[in-house]
């Protein structure tokens, strides 16, 4: 969970979103990063 919080601080626009949206966005980004490696 701390990782997601860190992402929010890195991306100010996410701080206004619902936590579930932030989490799903973060997880999606993780999937994209895995695929790109």
How would the blueprint of this fold be written?
Layout: H1 2-10, H2 19-36
What's this model, at a glance?
The chain is mostly helical and 37 residues long. The chain has helices at residues 2-10, 19-36.
What does this structure look like?
The protein has helices at 2-10, 19-36. The protein contains two helices and no strands. The chain has 37 residues and is mostly helical. The radius of gyration is 10 Å and the shape is globular. It has one domain (2-29).
Features:
37 residues; 2 helices; 0% strand
Please identify the structural class as seen in this structure. Answer: mainly alpha
- What is the percentage of strand-forming residues? under 5%
| Main sheet overview | none
Helix percentage: over 70%
Q: Spell the H/E element sequence.
A: HH
Q: What's the total count of β strands?
A: 0
Mean pLDDT: 74
Radius of gyration (Å)? 10 Å
